[in-house]
Amino acid sequence: MKYLLIILLLISYPGHSKGVIVPSDRVKSSVVLRAEPSSNSSILGRLFPAEEAILLNAVPYYYNVKLADGQEGFVSKAWTNLQSNTSAELTLTFLDVGQGDATLINCPNNNNVLIDMGTSRLPKSKTIIDIQAAFKSSLNNNFTLQSFIITHPDKDHYVLSDDIIGDIPIENVFYVGEVADYDADSINSSGSEFSHWFSQLGANFIKPTSDYYDDETQPNKLIDCGDAEVHILAAKTPPKASKPTWKTNANSIMVMVRFNDFEAIITGDATFSGENTVLARYDNDWLNVDLYKLGHHGSSTTSNSTAWMNALKPKIIIGSSSISNNYGHPRQSVIKRATNLNDADEHDVITGHYDKNLHKSVIELSKSNKEFYTTATNGNIVVVTSEITSSGYIVKY
Ligand SMILES: [Zn+2]
Asked: Rounded to the nearest whole angstrom, what is the distance from the C-alpha of residue 137 to the centroid of ligand 1?
């Protein structure tokens, strides 16, 4: 499948149609509605400036539309503009929070689901105010978080919650561990602890246990994302006995999002034990996804195993980390695990490797058969799954 890399102006529209078609600015009299997608075909009606038609389908060079009077036919794409309907789409925004994670899911029913909000090092060029502005402008217009999933109690996954989310209402909070665990290194800009903010949320608090997971056919009942489905694949996975210090990361809540043909997996800092748990739990064909946000910011030593990558077979890979982190995130070896798969298409992508002398990751441009984006190099990354573009998903940054 081929992907479009374009900037799309999204205009919010009520209802659940695919979108509307309007005459372009250069139309002086009207756009003809034809019986077939051809300029030789008979004329059935006209679309005048200031009028709009409902989009039924997109075909080469023409939109199949329905006029206000009910007449259906085809109008030329050359003389019309598409106004997308954001409420019928799923949008994933990977906010650039530096060395950390913050993923906002805009659901087709206008709900917002946030996965993590933290950093251990802000981006060099951004302040908390910049991040808050990006977050607020990315929210669906209900201005509520229907669900907030905090994958695990490491500060790069929660410490910005108070400052960025503030008093925006939250209906459901999913988290693991004890609230006190989140105070370990939490300080907001006013100096108060995470538990203070957490305690006054008035939300429904849910703590998935190690044996909890959603069935393939049953998305999570508490996470209402409209026509999109959100599954919790695993949580609180015990770490390997030989790696007890990986306990906090291994606790990560692992999530899958599905909408029409689009599937994405987001795993916080889950380790190999979480990946293996999910591989054992589910039909591996079901785990084959379009988008994968690299686990643990692209660590090769704790996460993103070859077996996991081979099962997921992601087409779009997202890395969330700062450009000058000391961990070499995302590791080039992880990218190799993902890109050594047998896809035919080659793309220009940005990869990185860990330079032992510089003690940081080095970003470089190379060829891969995957689309790979990182917040470090691309900033905020927005992925729009559109019902309209049969050619694929729109990635903008
Ligand atoms: Zn992390």
From this structure: 24
Distance 29 CA to ligand 1 centre (A): 57
CATH architecture of 19-84: Roll (2.30)
With H, G, I as helix, E, B as strand and everything else as coil, classify residue 264: strand
Instruction: Calculate how far, in angstroms, residue 140's C-alpha sits from the geometric centre of ligand 1.
Output: 26
Do the Cβ atoms of 182 and 158 come closer than 8 Å?
yes
CATH of the domain spanning 88-396, picked from 3.30.750.24, 2.60.120.1440, 1.10.287.130, 3.60.15.10 = 3.60.15.10
How far is Cα 340 from Cα 356, in angstroms, rounded to an integer?
Answer: 24
Of residues 339, 360, 358, the one with CA closest to residue 349? 339
Å from CA of 303 to ligand 1 middle: 11
pLDDT (tens place) for every residue of the chain, 397 residues total: 333 332 232 322 233 345 789 999 889 999 999 999 999 999 999 999 989 998 887 777 888 999 999 999 999 988 998 775 545 689 999 999 999 999 999 999 889 999 999 999 998 889 999 999 999 989 887 789 999 999 999 999 999 999 999 989 999 999 999 998 998 766 666 777 899 999 999 999 999 999 999 999 999 999 999 999 999 999 999 988 888 888 899 999 999 999 988 899 999 999 999 999 999 999 999 999 989 999 999 988 899 999 999 999 888 889 898 876 666 677 777 777 776 544 445 555 455 566 667 665 565 555 555 677 888 888 898 888 864 443 345 665 5
